[in-house]
Structures are given as structure tokens and as C-alpha cells.
Specification:
Shape: elongated
Order of helices and strands: HHHHHH
Strand content: under 5%
Distance between the termini: 62 Å
Number of strands: 0
């Protein structure tokens, strides 16, 4: 797989890697970095390409039974919070209220101390 970079801004040239001398143009041409320092040196320009190739850095596979219900609840809460953020942005207030209630029902920090006045 080859990396295709956008045309750089006129007058902008990224200096070569201090570890091996590889240039951004060379990486774009052959799709290979020259050394480990290239990752640090070109990080800003490469991170979006690496994410596009490898996907998000979050494991989304099955959950081992030994992890228990806590991990399942945490993942569900993360998903609901993402949905809530989208609903807020879209100004879908009924969906926001429903999601808020679901989050409150699952959140352990919201359930601690309830029933004591």
C-alpha cells in the first residue's frame, strides 16, 4: 500500500528525518519509513494516514467472560455518550433526554448513595 500525500503548501518543505535523512516525498513514493525516528519526526503528517490504514486504536472485539459485567457496562456507557453528543449537536432533544436517562440508569457513580437522604 502506498501513501499518497496532499500537495504541500507552496513554500512549505518538511525537513528530512534527522535519524536517517528520509524525506516526506520518499515516504509518499515508496510507502516506507526509513527508521524509528521517522515516526516521531513525521508524526503530524503521518498520524491521519496511519489511522486510516489501521483503523481506530480501540479494541472492539469480544469481551472475555473473566472481564465481568463492568467492562460491558463501561462500553455501553461510552456508546451512549457518543450517541448523546451526536444528538446534542443535531438538537434532537427527545433523543437527548432518553439517552441521558439511559446513561444515568447505567452509571455507577450516579447510583451510589441513592436511597439515603
Amino acid at each position: 500500500m502506498y501513501i499518497t500525500f496532499q500537495t504541500p503548501t507552496p513554500g512549505f518543505s518538511h525537513p528530512p528525518c534527522p535519524g536517517c535523512g528520509t524525506t516526506l516525498a520518499a515516504i509518499g513514493k515508496n510507502g516506507k519509513l526509513g527508521c524509528a525516528k521517522c515516526y516521531e519526526h513525521f508524526q503530524e503528517r503521518l498520524s491521519s494516514y496511519i489511522r486510516r490504514i489501521h483503523g481506530p486504536g480501540v479494541h472492539s472485539g469480544s469481551i472475555p467472560k473473566s472481564a465481568g459485567d463492568e467492562l460491558v457496562i463501561r462500553r455501553k456507557l461510552d456508546s451512549l455518550r457518543d450517541e448523546l453528543a451526536s444528538a446534542i449537536e443535531a438538537q434532537e432533544f427527545e433523543a437527548c433526554a432518553r439517552l441521558r436517562d439511559e446513561i444515568n440508569a447505567l452509571s455507577p457513580e450516579n447510583n451510589q448513595g441513592r436511597g439515603t437522604a
